[in-house]
Every structure is written in C-alpha cells, then in structure tokens.
Amino acid sequence: MGGKTRILLVAIFLAACSPSAPEPGPIAADAWVRAVPPGAGMTAGYLTISNPGSRDLDLIRVTSPDFGKIEMHSTIMEDGMARMRRESLVPVPGESEVVFSPGGRHLMLFRPAGPLSDGDRIGLTLTFTASGEETGDERITVAAEAVVRRGNAAQGEHHH
Ligand SMILES: [Cu+2]
Questions:
Q1: Which of 123, 131, 127, 129 is nearest to 141 (CA)?
Q2: Residue 112, Cβ neighbours under 10 Å: how many?
Q3: Residue spans per domain, the chain
Q4: How confident is the model at residue 133 (pLDDT cuts 50, 70, 90)?
Q5: From ligand 1's centre to the CA of 110, what distance in Å?
Q6: What is the CATH architecture of 24-151?
C-alpha cells in the first residue's frame, strides 16, 4: 500500500465526516440611496440581494449607523395609486435574487444622521434568518455599502 492510497483514504474519511459543505451566504450588490435636500427626514434606498445557496432565507432587518431607522417597503397599486406597505420580512428563496428598485420594493431610511450628498457612502447591515432543523433559527448578517445618488427625480414618487 503506497503513500498515495493512504492520502486518498484520509480524504474520503474527512469528506464523510464533515457535515454538508458550507452554504454560500447571501450577497448584497448595487446598493444606492437617493440624495435628498438637507433637512429631509427620510429617503429611499435600493439594492439587489442574491442567495446563491440552496436554503431559503428571510431578510428580517436592515440597519445603518447613518440612519435612525430603516424599513423594508413594498409598493402596491390601490385605486390606481402606488402605495407603500411596510414588510416585516422579505423572503429570499434559495438560488434566487430579489431586486429593490424605484417604483417597487425599496428601503425607507428615516432620520439621517447628516446631510446626504451625491457620492457619499452609507454602511448597511442586512440580517437574514435561515430556518434549519439542526441549527434552529440561524442569523446571518451581511454588510453592504450604498452610494448616495441623485437618481432619476421622475422615479422618486413616494406616496406615504
Ligand atoms: Cu416607502
């Protein structure tokens, strides 16, 4: 029995013993926050969240040191008017992507700590839960950086 065989056996042993391979975590991309005039109490933010893993995740919280409070909103049509609805969680199923974009799902960011000028960067922390039989309700946090942009004013409709 040569050394090669022994190495192979060790490798098989390790593969059999480790639980499943670690799941790839969710990814936040293209995050941006709409620039607002000084004194504005809130603004909206957008991003794309992808979940390359096989587990279904729920986005349950978004926080930032630069804002007093952040909510997740969806936009629904009611009597021909776009209205916002607060969501306590946003499902991000396995191997899928959820887009927050103007006119649709968005983040509402309240009480900015300072002025929001074009090009500023905002740190965001996204918290997800993954329910698993063995791990219980696991929390996964993902950091994202959002850029402050003027955006398209015509798409800034917010009927709160
Ligand atoms: Cu809103």
A1: 127
A2: 22
A3: 24-151
A4: low
A5: 10
A6: Sandwich (2.60)
